[in-house]
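Hi everyone, sorry if this is the wrong subforum. Our group has a chain we'd like a structural model of before ordering constructs, and none of us has done structure prediction before. Sequence below.
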Amino acid sequence: MTAKLLFVLGMCLLLANHGWAGDWPQFLGPTRNGVYAGSDLAETWPPEGPPVLWQKKVGQGFSGPAIADHKLILFHRLENEEVIECLEAGTGNQLWRFAYPTAYEDDFGFDPGPRATPSIDGGRVYTFGSEGMLHCLDLATGKKIWSVNAKTQFQAPKGFFGIACSPLVEGDALLLNIGGGNGAGIVAFDKATGKVLWKASNDEASYSSPIAATVNGQRYDCFFTRNGLVALDPGNGKIQFQYPWRPAMNASVSSATPLVIDDLIFLSASYGTGAILLRVKDNSVEKVWSADHVLSNHYATSVHRDGFLYGFDGRQEQGCNLRCVELKTGKIRWKQEGFGAGTVTLAGNQLLIMTEKGELIRAAATPEEFKPNAHAQILPFQVRAYPALADGLFYARSKDKLVCVDLSPAKKN
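Answer:
Right subforum, don't worry. Here is the predicted structure as tokens:
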């Protein structure tokens, strides 16, 4: 192989890696575990906080932003429509808009907007609305490619707070925890056409979104349904193993996404449930440990680094604290009060904590102690959507505002 060819191949790999790190195309990021792979963040922030590049008034919803190819997809509700907007990620300028009617009303008086974060894959955008409308749009133009009404086609129930599963693209399939009748608890669609590829499980839907992972050389689609863990073969939907584990009370929801770390699966829920660590072995699972007092995630998924979990423990409405927990033992290494609820994103060896009060806090991801090193008020109160991080830019939304904050090093003149 010539030196020139080696150089070209090396540049291709570099660009490919940069593109992968530069996108946040789905819920919880490229690897769906809340981890940012880029190394382009500033080591310090200015005293007044990182610069805000742009901000935009938005409608209702808990759907987080998704970013690919320097385009941001915003999914929100304006009056009686669920609206999908494509914005220039660097400026916030609108590129296209797609909308359809909605009549969703929250039974508990909470936000009536969409909950599920969009997914972007192969030049297509996938959204799942609070009433079960699934859309596939062209990323470049916003033109509708196909749609499915899961509420009517699969008898998808409203649940306590509407429908909220963030779509997962795995190979040629688009996967959703629908909780429908007649074996349509989990449904795989052809991502290009919307045709049903397979259905599996009679479990009701939870508020957790699925993840795909390879464990011991085998690929699994892992769902945390209302009944517990369900792992399926992505090719045919055959259930490989299940582990019943859920809150005992009916008036409860499970929202955190499963974390798959090597051959371990971590699940967490609130309402007196707590956390459990399972080991995958011979196409089945066995319990490593479980406890209710360790790390009870209400709606925000924890992150993992070097054998330690970092996340929020406790009910959102009753007060949460941030914790570090040893993965393999469940030992609590530290806990920090005073945040309320929030989300945690891992960037290198730093935690980016976005609180419901609109404060962005950066802290070292270390089991020794909680070490915050920067903070900034970037949004008003009532922040529930998951943020996104792409090309050094941090995107977060509150009840009525979307903001883009530059976390990359300051540009030299």
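For your construct planning: Residues 1-20 have pLDDT under 50 and may be disordered. The longest strand covers residues 71-78.
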